[in-house]
Every structure is written in structure tokens, then in C-alpha cells.
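Team,

Forwarding the record for the chain on the shared tracking sheet. I've put the sequence and predicted structure together so nobody has to dig through attachments.
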Amino acid sequence: MKKRIWIIPVIVILVCGFFIGRSFIGTRPFKDLTAKDVKEVTVKLIPPDTELGFTDEEVNKLVEILNRVVIYQKDNSYGKYAGQAVIFTMTKTDGTQISINAYNPFIIIDGVGYKTKYGPCEELNNLANNLEAEK
């Protein structure tokens, strides 16, 4: 009986460790996304309040970047930050629509904010700004 008593605390510690570790390790919500899954993409830049469409080549680049996006714990404090918002609206081939707002160091997916890695989020900003500069 004494030997079995230690099993419960070990299980509790492992479960807690999993959830705590996950918030530091992060997850990749778009790791399985392919360009074939995407029907249409638009991006809105605020400022300067411009909305642009994407070509197939630009969709490929967007998907490549989104595959590398890592999110951590939910964090809706992005409203306290000032700067440019880059809002991608993606319509998938199955008809679902996803809103992705790159707002470094946050990414907002369908209205839910997450802390994110700096690099891919900055690449999303650069992609949108370069697209605007070209058009």
C-alpha cells in the first residue's frame, strides 16, 4: 500500500509539468497548412488602412511563414501596444475563414491573442508591407 501512495503525486506532477512546459515550448497552429488548402487571402494594413489581395506566389510565401509561427500562452494584452496591425483574412478551400493579425510580439488568431516568436511574426509584417510597396 505504501508503494502505491507515491504514484498519485507523480502523476499530478507529470500532468502539471506537461501543461506548464507546453506554455514555454509553444505550439505551431499552422504547421499542417499547405497552399492547396488556401482558396483566397487578403491583407489589411492599419495604418495606412489599405487592403490587398494575394497572388498564388504570395499565398505560397504566406503559408511558408505561417508554418513556422509558434504561439505560446494566450495573452490579450496586445491592446496596450501601439503600432501597425497587419490582418490577414484567409479563406480555405473547405469554406472556413481565418483571421490572423500579426502584431509583434503577438499574433491574434480569430480574435484570440497569443504571445509569439518574433521572427515569423516580423516576416508576416514584412510580407504585407512589401506587398503594399509593390502595388
